[in-house]
Amino acid sequence: MAYIKEKTIAGRKYFYVTKSVRLPDGKVKTLQKLVKDRRVSPQAFAGWFEEEEKKAFCGWAAKTYPADSVFSAEQIRAAEEMRFGYRKILARLSKPQLKDLFDRFTVNFTYESNAIEGNSLTLKDVAIVLFENASIKGKDLREIYETRNSREVVDLILRRKLKATEADAIRVHKTLVRDMDIPTGYKTVPNYLLGRDVETTPPEKVAGAMGKLFADYEANEGKLHPVQLAARFHGAFEKIHPFEDGNGRVGRFLVNAMLVNNGYPPLIIRKSQRTAYMKCLNDFDRGYARNLERFLLEKYKDTYRKFFEVYAKYLK
C-alpha cells in the first residue's frame, strides 16, 4: 500500500509518495516520487506506481537472465511485461470471473493439446465432456476419458499443485491415462515416433535419463529465463519419450506447470501449429534448440495477447 513519507534534508522538509514492492527473488524495492505536500492522495499515483513496478520487474529479469539470439534483452522484457500483466489481470478478477477464465482456458488448452495427438472431439464436444459430464455419441471412449482426465491435471496446474518433479510427471501420466487400459509408469518396450527421425531413449535407460533431466532443470532454475528453460526441458522430455503413450500431452502439461509455478501465464499450442511444432521438436533432436525456444516463446506471447488480454479487455 502506498503512503506519504516525510524526509528532512538540510533543514527542509520533503514529501514522497512511497510504496514497497517485492521482486521475484524475494527482495524488496522501494518506489518513491516527490510530491508537493503531505495532503496529496497516494491513490492518485496508482498508475505511476504500476508502471514503475513493471519497470522494476523487467529490470530485475534483464539483470538476472542471460540474453542470447532468441531471448534477447528486448524479448525478456516483453515476457516479463506479460508476466506482470497476467498478475494484474488475476488480481482484479472476482472469484466467479477467475473460475470462468480458468474454465475457458481449460477447454481451449485441452481441445488443442488433444487435437495435436489426433483426438477428434470438437471444441464444443470438449466443453460438454468437461462441464456437463456427458459422453459424445459416436466418439471413442478413449477420447472422452483423456479429455475428462486432462481437466484434473489442468486444475492442478492452475492451482499450483503440480511441481516440476519426476514424481509429479509420473503422477500426471497416471491421471491422464486413467481408465484407458494404458500402462502407467515408465515404458517397458521401445516406442517410435511417426514423422520424427530420432530414436527415443530405450526402456532400460529411461529412469536414469529422467533423473538427469529433472536434476538439470533444477540446477538451471534462476540461471535461464523460465520460458527458455521450459522449452529446453520440453525438447529433452519428448526426445526421451518416457511413457508408452501420452508423452506429448504430459510434456505440455509440465511446460505449463513450470510457467505457472513461476508466476507466468500458461500457454496453448494450437492444432493448426502442429506442423511447425513437430519441425521444432525435430530440430531440437538434431541439436538445434533455438527453434523450439523461439516457437514456445511465441506461443507464450500469443496466448497472453489473444486469450488472457482479450478476456480482460471485455471485463465489465
TrEMBL record:
Entry's transmembrane regions: none
Protein origin, superkingdom: Archaea
Organism, scientific name: Candidatus Iainarchaeum sp
Domain Fido: 164-298
PANTHER family in UniProt: FIDO DOMAIN-CONTAINING PROTEIN, FIDO DOMAIN-CONTAINING PROTEIN DDB_G0283145
Name under which the protein is recorded: Fic family protein
